[in-house]
Amino acid sequence: MRDANRLSISEDLKKQIEIVVIDFLQEVRPNALPKDIDAAYYLIHSMSSSTSDFDEKEERDVKNFNADLEPTDCKQVSYVGGIANEQSLSKHLWSRKNVENILYQGRAAVTVLRAAIIVGSGSASFEIAFGTINPIDGVSPKDILTGEVIAIFWLRSLAPKI
After folding, report:
1. Are residues 53 and 17 in the same domain?
2. Quick check: 2 pLDDT over 90?
3. pTM score, whole prediction
4. Residues 26 and 91 in one domain
5. Mean local confidence (pLDDT), 97-109
């Protein structure tokens, strides 16, 4: 997540987890992650920062992610990718498929969810979705955020139990 302070969980749960902040565009740091990780969700997307070199940034992100994950006990990585027909991909979808291929080069097993998006408050996808339904009477951003929470719990339920 972009800002760990925006993590909306109870204080009791916050005491039970460790939040590690890493910029995967930066050089890999030895032992940046705790060793006792069971699973990781790869939700990094660099498209919003630039329309010209986002694919290079995404490749660097995922290679650094794999390198940082290597010394851990992580057994499973879950990744939300895009539809990839392998024949005629836009630059964006080619980059998503490339990220997937690089994740497979890592040590952990990989689960890929295709044609899925995660819509979070403040993201481009959120703004598009909200702009689409905003004219509908009775629907507020709070309603969308409730749906976001449901979608995240659904995504978590798809991850294999380790």
Report:
1. yes
2. no
3. 0.68
4. yes
5. 95
| C-alpha torsion angle, residues 87, 93, 98, 103 (rounded to 10) | -120
| Under 8 Å between Cβ of 33 and 50 | no
What CATH number should be reported for the domain holding residue 8?
3.40.50.720
> Which residue do the tokens 């798809």 mark?
158
Return the structure tokens found at 59.
């490749």
User: Do both 14 and 35 map to the same domain?
Assistant: yes
For residue 162, what are the contacts with CB-CB under 8 A and spacing of at least 6? 38, 39, 75, 76
Longest dimension (CA), the chain: 52
Output the DSSP codes for 38-62: -EEEE----GGG-SSSHHHHHHHHH
Structural domain boundaries enclosing 149: 120-162
Distance CA 146, CA 162 (A): 28
pLDDT mean over 75-87: 82
Instruction: Check: CB of residue 103 under 8 Å from CB of residue 66.
Output: yes
With residue 111 as reference, give the H or E element that holds it: strand 109-113
Helix (H, G, I), strand (E, B) or coil at 14: helix
Q: What token pair was written down for 122?
A: 């403040």
